[in-house]
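Margin note: ligand = 6-O-phosphono-beta-D-glucopyranose.
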Amino acid sequence: MKKPDNLILIIFGASGDLASRKLIPALFSLKLQNLLPEKFVIMGAGRTPFSDEDFRKKMKEGIITFSEENDPDEHQLEQFTGHLSYIRIDNTSAGDFKKLREKLLDMDKSYGTGSNYIFYMATPPGIYKTVSENLAMVGMADQSKGFRRFIYEKPFGYDLESGRALNNILHEMIGENQIYRIDHYLGKETVQNVLVTRFANGIFEPLWNRNYIHRVEITSAESIGVEERGSYYDSSGALRDMVQNHILQMTGLTAMEPPSSLEPDAVRNEILKVFQSLQPVREADVAKQVIRGQYTGSTIREECVSGYRQEKGVAENSMTETYIAMKFYINNWRWGGVPFYIRTGKRMPARVTEIVIYFKRTPHHLFQRQEGNLISNMLIIRIQPDEGILLKFDMKEPGSGFNIKNVNMDFHYKDLADVRVPSAYERLLYDAMTGDSTLFSRDDEIETAWKFIDPIQKAWANNPGIKLYGYPAGTWGPSNANEIIEGCGLDWRYPCKNLTDDGLLCEL
Ligand code: BG6
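Resulting structure:
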């Protein structure tokens, strides 16, 4: 892999959690792999006053606590943090941005970073516009000398109107090819592997359509609650926080047509087509197709766990969903009539994300099945944890007669010796540094995703009678979610921590 060109990376909101938990540890890992530029500076910018020394110390602690590198040695840490510096900035002050510009130009000269700058917005989304305008105002969006790239964390907008407005404002100052909108799920190795599984193997493509697939199920469950993010989450909810972005992107990769190449726009055009083919959920159908839930207090492994409404920053009568299950269709030739079921929630029994392809049954059933499951063949693409792939199929149980048993064929990333799976942020930061935007969301993808989400959000707002079901923390969500699965005897898959364990009695 090539080293990126020399550059200065400026992180706005650098005193926040994202910088110390994810960004700086990811940059440190890139440094250890020799994948940072020859010459680089990482500058934190934020309201909190820090000296360079204090900032380095805080980031060093972040690396020690959160880095995936085992036991980083002191010398490596010192060497890396030597590239960090900090500037205190009021994001609304034009004067501060002029000072920032002066400082950046000086540093660029003294470190020889080639007038290349990347601005990372790790701030609350409400100030993306102000920061970007101020940067443009002091000439920092101008690419006549060196590159200028702008990375935006999610959420990108709050609904279609605000997402579109943000795109429009940014486009007045910055070209779309300078904008990198993060969806960290796209940075996950296993999410990218969906493309490889589908398009590097000739055996799947002929079956990957409405003729052979019965349904698709995507689960993204988390065992944690909202933790310290109650006030953000309460104005967001699972639909905006997980479905509009991560789950729809996974749907896009699962359902897309083969791209003509791996060029950023070739891949993103195909994902966009999937989003454009999503059958809108009509307001009248929301109660039937979309189940929302909120966790209530409970005991998990002998520990008392608060309900959502008792969490810090959450309104005591909050109607925000911490769980959502829904059914939708993709109206195109490949997927017409195949239901897609998605499910995501906080405070579920396990942290697990997976995509399950259920293949149709054989047209004539020669053999009696012992077990209840009516579907013989499932392909499970495990995003996390125990990353891997599992194919389930029927075989004959040895002995007289034709008793059949459903068995597993599995691959686990952890079995690959000496292969290190990079973190999502490592991959995305490296890609932004090398100018590859394939794994970042484009303006039209974001807007089309919001277009799908908006009617659901509106239906909830307009019809307070649509139920919000409680579910005890530590469970798989409201049982009403089973009702949206069509067909008797069918149910969700209840995944375990280990990919190949099945059923409700497993390690969570
Ligand atoms: C974030 C959401 O985008 O993704 C969080 O805002 C969620 O609420 C997180 O916890 C999940 O990411 P991961 O990588 O832990 O599955």
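The pocket of 6-O-phosphono-beta-D-glucopyranose is lined by residues 154, 222, 241, 353 (CB under 6 Å).
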